[in-house]
Amino acid sequence: MIHPVATPRTPAELAPLIDHTLLKADATEAELRRYCAEAAEHHFCSVCVNPAHVALVAGALRGTGVKTCSVVGFPLGATLPETKKAETASAVRDGADEIDMVINIGALRDNKLDAVRADIAAVRAACPGKVLKVIIETCLLDDEQKRTACRLSAEAGADFVKTSTGFSTGGATVADVALMRQTVGQALGVKASGGVRTWDAAQALIAAGATRIGASSGVALITGAPAASGSY
User: Fold this and answer.
1) Which residues does the entry assign to the active site, renumbered to this chain (predicted)?
2) pLDDT for the residue 223
3) pLDDT value for 46
4) Which listed residue (94, 100, 159, 176) is catalytic?
C-alpha cells in the first residue's frame, strides 16, 4: 500500500522524493561522482543512471543511504524481454536497488496486452526484492492506453508507474499524474519525470499524486537555482 505524500513545504521534505538523474549519453565519471556527492549532501532518494554506470555509482553511494537506480530498455523500450531481463540482472549484480524499465510502447498501441504484461513480468522476475518502476511514456499514448499500461504494470508486479523517459516528445504533466494515480489507487507509487525543473512544478505533480520525482536538476529543485540548459 502506497500512502499519499504531503505537498512538501521545505527543501528537506522534497529531497527524499527525488531521483537525481544523469542519463545523457556523454556522462563522464566526474559528472557521475558529482551527482552522487550532491545526492548524499541533499539526502535525495536515489541516483538514476544508465546500466554501464551502476557499479561506479553504487560504490560511490555506499554508506550514504542514497539508493542506486538503473534504467532498463532505455529510452525506447523496443528490446526483447530476454534482453531487458539480462540487463536487469546485470544492474542488480552491479548494485542497483531500483530498476526503471521502459515498456514495449508499440506493443501496447497494437493492443498486444499479454506481450506487454510478460515484458514487465520478465524484468520483475530478474529483480526480486528490488523496487521496479515502469515507464509508460505518456506523451505517446492516449488516456485509455495510459490506464491500460498502469493496470498491466500492477498485474505484473511493479511497484511504481512512471510518466516518461524525458527523451521523447514530452514529459510529466499534472493531468497524466492524476490519471495514473486514479488508475492505480494507493497500490503503486507514481513517479513523475521529464521536464520537472522547478520547485512549483514538483509541488504541483506531488499534489496530483506523484510519490517520486525524477529530474536531472534535483539540486535546482530544492535550492531555487536555475536548472541547467538541456536538463530533463
Assistant:
1) 100 (proton donor/acceptor), 162 (schiff-base intermediate with acetaldehyde), 191 (proton donor/acceptor)
2) 84
3) 98
4) 100
- Is 146 noted as a catalytic residue in this protein? no
Q: Is residue 206 part of a domain?
A: yes
Q: What is the pLDDT of residues 189-211, one digit of tens each?
A: 999 999 999 999 999 999 999 99
Instruction: Determine whether 162 is an active site residue.
Output: yes
Let me know if 84 is a catalytic residue.
Answer: no
Among residues 67, 84, 85, 191, the one annotated as catalytic is 191
In this prediction, residue 124 carries a pLDDT of: 98
- The parent domain of residue 102 ranges over 11-223
Contact partners, residue 44, CB within 8 Å, separation at least 6: 15, 16, 18, 19, 20, 38, 66, 218
Other Cβ atoms within 10 Å of 204 Cβ, number: 18
The CATH number given to whatever domain includes residue 115 is 3.20.20.70
Which pLDDT does position 2 carry in this prediction?
A: 66
Distance CA 206, CA 197 (A): 14
Of the candidates 88, 89, 47, which has an alpha carbon nearest to the alpha carbon of residue 64?
Answer: 47
Exactly one of 84, 133, 146, 162 is catalytic; name it: 162
Contact 136, 147 (CB under 8 A): no
Residue 35 within any structural domain of the chain: yes
Q: Is 5 contained in some domain?
A: no
Residue ranges in the chain modelled with pLDDT below 70: 1-4, 225, 227-232
Number of independent structural domains in the chain = 1
Burial of 79 (0-12, 13-18, 19+ CB in 10 A): middle
pTM, two decimals, is: 0.95
| Cα angle, residue 24 at apex, residues 162 and 90 outer, rounded to 5° | 70
